[in-house]
Please model this.
Amino acid sequence: MGKGDQRSKRGKIFRGTFGKTRPKRKKAPEAPAARGAKTARKAAK
Model:
């Protein structure tokens, strides 16, 4: 049970995969005003 274990959460984080142990987060629909603020912040960097 570690980074090499494909079925553990740590192993999935290490490999960058998703599944039952590490489900993908569903993106919540954002308001248009909130979206503009995020893109403005990224552009400023």
